[in-house]
C-alpha cells in the first residue's frame, strides 16, 4: 500500500467516524413523553393514516394558509372514517377544529401524552378543542357500527 493510499484510507475512515458519531443523549422529557404515548395506545383500534398535512406541503394543499395566523390542516383516513383537522396556533396554545365523517354517535377522545379529554360531536361530525398546549396528540373515534379508530400521533 502506498503512502497516498494510506492517507486516503485514513481520511475515509475519519469521514465515516464523523458521519456515524454517537447521537445526542435522549432527554428525560423525550423519554417521559414516549412512555406516556406508549401507555395511551388503544389495542384493537384501527389506525387512521395521515393522508395530508399542510405542515408537509404548506399553502396550496387543503386550503391556503393565512399570513395572520399559524394554521395547519391535517387529514386522516381509514376504511371506516375520515378525520379532518384545522389547527390554529396562537399565544403558545392550539385550537383544534375537526370534522369526522361519518359523524360518530359518541364524543371524540383527544389523547395527549399526559391526559385524555372528551369533545362532543354535532350531527355533522364537527367538534372543537380549545387552548391546548403544544405537544403530541391522537384522536379516538367510534364510528357508527364500527370498531374504534385512532389517528396517528401528530405534534401540534
UniProtKB/TrEMBL annotation:
<protein>
    <submittedName>
        <fullName>Uncharacterized protein</fullName>
    </submittedName>
</protein>
